[in-house]
């Protein structure tokens, strides 16, 4: 039996990891040169800045266990439960001293992954797992469940200032702002106090062209007078509308990722794992530790 997992984001890695741990050979194909997908960190000025997911939260017991393992390995640490602009008490938000992508690198260790491998048609395998946003999966296979997904873009700006000139705030939800959705203090998040802020735009703004407005908005919000150096990353498929089930399946082709639940790292991890449990259960009849619901395409 061969399983090919397409996508080395957190969903694909969780799926492949679970399969391999159950004794099922799995190969991962990833178009980028690194694992992580939207769990992304960019190397700038001798340090990583998180340009995708801002932090990780966990309320599922098995993902809480995963997070504790990363903590023991020194990969993750509790960051803050308080964001400016949050309504009521917030969950503990976890960050990664080496950038959030290091969590994906940890999961990828020991897996058979081919990087720089963009898949354009269904690979020949007993099972194929498309672990990616639906619109990207549609380039590989025409899955109705992928067509039903709805996604918004986000523009990320990494702003490197000459010095830290703002009051410590950790992170902020910027409610009802035309340009900004969140701003995080990357130096606080990483723990190195670097003068770096990472802003995520609203979907509406991400669809526009004028990027400099994001710098003006952050400086205005935090009362900063210095001009930063700005690097941008556009995520065309950043946030899905929350979907039902834990994955979708049509024949031997699965679709998984963060569109199956609230768009979070935890959801992607659970979705990928649920696919692995489904394959193991079908092939070996092994009872799964966490029964999951599938949406059949
Ligand atoms: C700006 C932003 C902020 C976010 N903030 C948070 C947050 O604070 N907390 C949180 O929990 N979540 C956050 N998220 C969401 C979180 O990043 C995602 O839920 C999670 O990383 C999704 O993982 P995934 O594996 O489902 O998909 P992805 O990470 O998108 O992985 C898909 C992978 O498939 C690969 N791929 C796609 N097509 C192909 C192909 N044809 N061939 C080969 N490979 C292919 C891609 O390169 C990618 O590596 C944020 C996301 C963004 C973009």
Description:
About 25% of the residues lie in helices and about 25% in strands. It is an alpha/beta fold and about 300 residues long. The protein folds into two domains: about 5-45 and about 100-150 and about 240-295, FAD/NAD(P)-binding domain; about 150-240, Polyamine Oxidase, Chain A, domain 2 (Alpha-Beta Complex). The chain has a seven-stranded mixed sheet with strand order 7-2-1-8-15-14-16, covered by helices on one side. It has a five-stranded antiparallel sheet with strand order 10-11-12-9-13. Strands 3-4 form a two-stranded antiparallel sheet. The chain starts with a strand and ends with a strand. The structure holds flavin-adenine dinucleotide (FAD). Flavin-adenine dinucleotide binds near residues 7, 29 and 140.
* Discrete helix count: 9
Largest sheet strand order = 7-2-1-8-15-14-16
Strand content: 25-35%
Query: What small molecules does this complex bind?
Result: flavin-adenine dinucleotide
Mean pLDDT: 95
- Write the CATH architecture name of the largest domain: 3-Layer(bba) Sandwich
Number of strands: 16
Into which percent range does the helicity of residues fall? Answer: 25-40%
Instruction: State Rg.
Output: 19 Å
Tell me, what is the CATH class of the largest domain? Answer: Alpha Beta
Structural class designation: alpha/beta
How many domains? The number is 2
CATH topology of the largest domain: FAD/NAD(P)-binding domain
**Oligomer classification:** single chain
